[in-house]
Amino acid sequence: MPQANPHAGSDFDAFLEDQELYAEATAGALKRVLAEQLRRTMTEANISKAEMARRLHTSRSQLDRLLDPDNQTVRLDTLERAASALGRRLRIELV
Fold first, then answer.
1. Dihedral, CA atoms, 39, 43, 44, 45, nearest 10 degrees?
2. Is the pLDDT score of 22 beyond 70?
3. How many domains does the chain have?
């Protein structure tokens, strides 16, 4: 008799946790969402990358790393400064 799938009936989060991938997947998804929100807000406010870099007192290449959805090495204080430069607040919460 074939062995039953141990993940049958479980959700995807449980699968990721079993594979020790949940934290990495969640962090990646959050960074992609934040990068998209920053880009969208810049576009809506008609703020160029050059202007945003000036507001953050940084280079365009640093800003590109901030806006790169796959770059997860962004510090919280950098995200806070970016939000502030766009007239927004960064809110992080535990759920």
1. 100
2. no
3. 1
